[in-house]
Amino acid sequence: MPARPLIGRDRELAVLAGMIGDVPERGGAVVVVGEAGIGKSSLLRAAAQTGREANCRILLTTGVEAEAQLPFSGLHQLIRPVLGDAEGLPETQRRALSAAFGGGDGAPPEPFMIALAALNLLAEAAAARPLVLIADDVHWLDRPSQEALAFIARRVSADPILLVASVRKGHDTIVATVGLPELEIGGLDDASAREVLAGHGPDLSYADTERILREALGNPLALVELPAALREVPDHGADTLPLTARLEQAFAARITGLSALTRDAILVTAVDFSDELPEILAGASRLAGRAAGVEALEEAAEAGLIRFDDLHIRFRHPLVRSGVLQRETAARRHAAHAALAEVLAGQPYRQTWHRAQSITGPDDAVADELEENCRISLHRGSATGAIWALQRSAQLTTDSARRGRRLLLAAEHAFGLGRADLVDELLARAARTSLSRLDRARMEWLREIFNDGVPGDAGRVSELCDIAVESAGAGDGDLALNLLLGAALRCWWADTGPAARAQVAEVARLLEEEAGGDPRYVATLAVAEPVRCATGVIKLLNGTVLESIADPSALWLLGMAAHAVSEPVHAVDFLARAETKLREEGRLGLLSQVLTMQVLDRLELGDWDQALASVEEGRRLARETGQPIWDTGSTALHAIALALRGSDQAQAMATEAEHAASGRRLTDLLACVQLARGFALLAAGQYTDAYDALRRLFDPEDPAFHLAERYHGVMFLAEAAVHAGREDDVRPVIAALEAERTVTASAALARHLSYARAVLADDTHAEAEFQAALRADLIRWPWLRARLELAYGSWLRRQRRVADSRLPLRSALTTFDLIGAGSWARQARAELRAAGERTAADEPPPGALSPQDVLSAQELQIARLAAEGLSNREIGERLYLSPRTVGSHLYRIFPKLGITSRAQLGARLGQA
User: For a 10 Å CB count at each end of the chain, is N or C smaller?
Assistant: First the structure.
């Protein structure tokens, strides 16, 4: 550690030194948390010095409160030394970084694409020399930079990169809430506190020494500053004030004695975004009305308030800045902002920001400029900056209706960030303005878009339909479709009853001519009425040319519609294309939904490996992007995927999802919970319990009843009924579904019923039913085909047609092994043995396990992409990982699979 170690911080220094020592082997992150003045910055400086001594490259960024509205300023400060290497990034990432830092043109970049670009830039730099990233006062960094740091911190474990970030205790920052390890810094012990105080107050009396020790509570900054304050003002530090306030007062007291020009320079420094010395002196000159040179700063430096060199100026501690702002009047602060606005004529974004801070009353000209700043923020990938600009713009706007419209626009951007609290606040303010009728309708939509998961509320659905009709009548069909989709989603997540569902579909059809093939129209019909509207929706989907659609949001809506009407082939095709495009654009929030939505459909079609990879990634992204309902949904779907594989974790995971879904009566998710339970029990051979669990899905009075999701359990219910001797109980259920089949063209229902008819048929009709089911087009349905073959082969063997039974049983076994359906593969092997046939698969070599048994879903996904020929960089771009992280995964994957090279992956994974 440094030659002059910090007093009383041996434990903290040892922790940081240990992490830095490990950097060449593994990366990581740590958040240093403590009160103001507790020594966080000193620890970070010590960590930087340790990193230098360990031959690490040090990259630094420091949060400044005045810069919190400047998008990506903190990230730019951090990676500026390595930006020269950005030419080596993929073009989309390079463009995203350029836009974030104010350059380039084209569509606004997604924040996660910017973060991925920064991660890859850092990973490339770390390949040459380990990196230690120092981020001080993260709570004052702009929010986009905080989000980027959190993204990076979660993904550097395989790279020689360590992030050390400091956060003031009590601040709700993203970096401090994503589960990173924390190093909490408390006050110094008594002996250390006395040692620090002795070095800064050797002339103090015993009484004053004890008083300061009592007030400082081991805070190093207080131990340094309170002796000086006590000398200047003997009664300073009233016990009624918190320590931070007393320290601010101690710094503020020193300002009073400074010359007028120095006070002007210090005030401009306090309100400026930048620490650039020429800019601050120019602003001070404007404020003072006379030239201000570096001599104006020397007095403040001697007072221990600032440090400066030829280029930069910084406050000695953030509390100095807050002390300055606290001491000066509002009029003086406004004047300082106005002075800076004059200096920044060549930087319109910053100039407008300072102009907005220099006035108190309405000013429509500045309000219009701020709305333009909103567009600049969005172009840089910062919705946070756009929201602030629109909020301030609204405050300065004289026209009430226009003010409300700006607040609604800010609320839309807040929704994009997942900030339900901010949306509610902005809507409450907008409601007090003179909104037009259309804007009031838009406000209802904004109130709705966070409520996909509320309990079924037929009254609210009807209200939304009425507002949609009014919006359409006023000429805003776009808003009408948004409102209807919100109403339909209420019907999907938590059943609102047949009347409400029918009303949504009826109003949607009123817009049919104008909506044309709008994906929102298709999704609304499908989600509101997945049975009655299925045939019409499927016709629309069949008429859609997949390759002609480039918008991932449109693909997502069409995939949603296909899933709702139980068309797995269409759903997977639309959602897979949406996934590819969302990965290219870095839209991780919507990507998490697309990944999660395709899981059940991939399971239906036998693509189990991809289903498991999708649900694990979807769950991780839902948590990272703050989408609790999709987090719960992915938990339920994860349970289903594990249940089919026979995993012991499935039941516990289903219970976890049930607890989260029951509180909001989310019938869709409760249905998925019952599917998981039924599948797990069926895989374990507990047929009676499996039947009881699955039977709930078909009882309209049960909370787990869902019009569409129950179709995924039909063939399993029939199978469980046969094994449990409950055929008489299940026949009326199947008969009702057969009647429903005349209303809907659902492919999943048709396929499941073909299986149910066959296994429930008497021996006279069974063979005809099996053969009819197997004659259907099952090219995209290998899982269903294999189940039919297993059931048919078992029936043939029981009919003593042993030779005939072997062919379908062999075919079923091959498919089960390929997709990882272990329990059904064991059944097929048992049937083949009973038919007198033994296969090599009956006697696997000791320790020989399938890739699905030894690899996690993410590892399997990486292995498959590598087997397809993708490079580490290409895999990293697809999965939002650094190339080195991908390489680290492959390093662990090879020995697990018993191979030594990439070239062997295809054969080992069954892709040869």
Answer: C
> For residue 575, what pLDDT is reported?
97
pLDDT at 419 over 80: no
- Is the C-alpha dihedral spanning 893, 894, 898, 902 positive or negative? positive
Nearest to residue 148, comparing CAs of 101, 90, 87?
A: 101
If we measure between CA atoms, which residue out of 462, 821, 320 comes closest to residue 607? Answer: 821
Quote the CA–CA distance of 505 and 498 in Å, as a whole number.
11
Please tell me the distance from the alpha carbon of residue 866 to that of residue 905, in angstroms, as a whole number.
Answer: 8
Q: What is the DSSP track for 705-717?
A: --TTGGGGGHHHH
Pairwise CA distance, residues 85 & 87, whole Å? 5
Q: If we measure between CA atoms, which residue out of 328, 333, 343, 323 comes closest to residue 274?
A: 343
To the question of pTM greater than 0.85 for the whole model, the response is no
Count Cβ neighbours within 10 Å for each residue of 781-800 and write b for 16 or more, e otherwise.
Answer: bbbbbbbbbbbbbbbbbeee
Q: Which tops the pLDDT comparison, 848 or 374?
A: 374
- DSSP assignment letter at 433: S
Summarised one tens digit per residue, pLDDT across range 800-819 is: 999 999 999 999 999 999 99
Whole-number Cα distances in Å, 347 to 142, 353, 766: 18, 10, 79
CA torsion angle 440 444 446 450 (round to 10): 170
- Please give the helix or strand (H or E) that residue 341 lies within, else none: helix 330-343
Q: Name, in order, each residue with C-beta under 8 angstroms of 620's C-beta and a sequence gap of 6 or more.
A: none
Element (H, E) at 162: strand 161-168
Whether residue 848 is predicted with pLDDT greater than 70 in this model: the reply is no
Distance of CA 372 to the CA centre of its chain: 28
The set of residues, in sequence order, having a beta carbon less than 8 Å from that of 613 and lying 6+ positions away, is 857, 858, 860, 861
* pLDDT at residue 900, rounded to an integer: 86
Side-chain half-sphere of 432: how many Cα atoms within 13 Å?
Answer: 7
3-state secondary structure of 543: coil
Name 326's Cβ contacts closer than 8 Å, sequence gap at least 6.
248, 249, 252
How far, in whole angstroms, is CA 589 from its chain's centroid?
5
Instruction: Read off the tokens for 97.
Output: 């970084």
Beta strand pairing call for 182-184 and 28-34: parallel
- Closest to 791 measured CA to CA, from 760, 819, 764: 760
Greatest mean pLDDT among 253-262, 370-379, 526-535, 661-670: 526-535
CA angle 320, 387, 397 (to 5 degrees): 95
Chain position carrying tokens 């929704």:
415
Beta pairing partners, 281: none
Q: Is-contact 621 595, C-beta < 8 A?
A: yes
DSSP letters, 347-362, are -HHHHHHHHHHT--S-
* Two structure tokens written together for 89: 């990034």
Q: Quick one: pLDDT at residue 706? A: 95
Radius of gyration over every alpha carbon of the chain, rounded to an integer in angstroms: 32
CA-to-CA dists, residue 624 to 531, 772, 862, angstroms:
34, 47, 20
Please tell me the predicted confidence (pLDDT) of residue 178.
Answer: 81
Look up tokens 């830092």; give the residue.
101
pLDDT for res 840 = 52
| pLDDT for 315 beyond 80 | yes
Higher pLDDT, 122 or 586: 122
- pLDDT bin (cut points 50, 70, 90) of residue 377 is confident
Encode pLDDT of 639-667 as tens digits: 999 999 988 899 999 999 898 877 667 88
CA dist., res. 691 & res. 706, Å (int): 17
Smallest CA-to-CA distance from 523 within 484, 467, 478 is with 484
Asked whether the beta carbons of 53 and 261 are under 8 A apart, the reply is no
What does the alpha-carbon distance between residue 141 and residue 40 come to, in Å, rounded to a whole number? 16
Integer angstrom CA distances of residue 738 from 735, 744, 745: 5, 10, 12
